Amino acid sequence: MGATAPGSTQKAGDAAAPLPEQHDHGTGGRWPAWTAEFAATAVLLFAMATLFRWLADPASPLAQAVPAGGGRVVVGGIVSGGSVGLLIASPFGRRSGAHMNPAVSVAFWLMGALPGRDLAGYAAAQLGGSVVGVVAGRVVWGAALAKPEAGFAAVRAAEGIPAVVVFAAEAAATAVLLAAVTFVSARPGPSWRVPVVAGAAVTVLIWLTGGWAGGSFNPARQFGPQLLSGDTRWLWVYALAPLAAAVAFGTVRARLPGAGPLPKAPPVPPR
User: Fold this and answer.
1) Which of 97, 122, 198, 247 places its Cα 20 to 30 Å from the Cα of 116?
2) Which is higher by pLDDT, 69 or 122?
């Protein structure tokens, strides 16, 4: 689950234009973008907590209506992808780009679309938002979210799948997501394309990998759930695999001739 691309308040043809207003404000000028990134990630994780609470609890009407296995992966993919797309298009997305994923931020930094001094702020906001979103889910939904079936919304690989296979699946899915998002971001077109493509990519990738590898491809997607569940045995896989893919993809694309510039993030704050 869970990666997305930065949006921009710029017009499509101005994707490579510098944003001196935002960049000249120093650290104080970065807080609106960091706060928006925190809020977007918290909302995403609350949505995932809500999904797991109602989809995983055997007593839930939704769980009884949707068969276990493939049916729940389909529903999970639709809800996850839809949430990502809506958050990119939301005011949060217009202010920060709604990465909601440290791997996306690392890749866009390597490709010159995210200032280096924003990288740590974005990552901290995403991880903090992940924890807060799951805590909010626990407060709202109570003990049902802590049941083993819901597991604080942490995704899991199927039993018997080796860690190296999950690592490869998570890395490959992250690379595909980044490729889809950067392809549309670097080309002129209507602003709705990025949230639609990012949401659709997340949905399809969850359908393809969620049933056996977990389908996270986002360190922030797993950080809060696994931290609060107390079971962090697989966290290194779900954290390192997307980051490794982001470093490889970002490094290669930055050196690829004709790849096209990406919109700068964060966008200039509205006046």
Assistant:
1) 198
2) 122
Q: What is the pLDDT of residues 78-89, one digit of tens each?
A: 999 999 999 999
pTM of the predicted protein model: 0.87
From residue 176, alpha-carbon distances to 110, 160, 170, 229 in Å are 17, 25, 10, 29
For residue 263, the model assigns a pLDDT of 79
Q: 198 pLDDT band (50/70/90 cuts)?
A: very high
A 10 A CB-CB count for 123 gives: 22
Separation between Cα atoms, residue 125 and residue 133, nearest integer Å: 12
pLDDT in tens, 251-266: 999 999 878 788 776 6
CA distances from 76 to 49, 153, 237 (A): 11, 11, 21
Q: What's the rounded Cα separation, in Å, for the pair 69 and 205?
A: 16
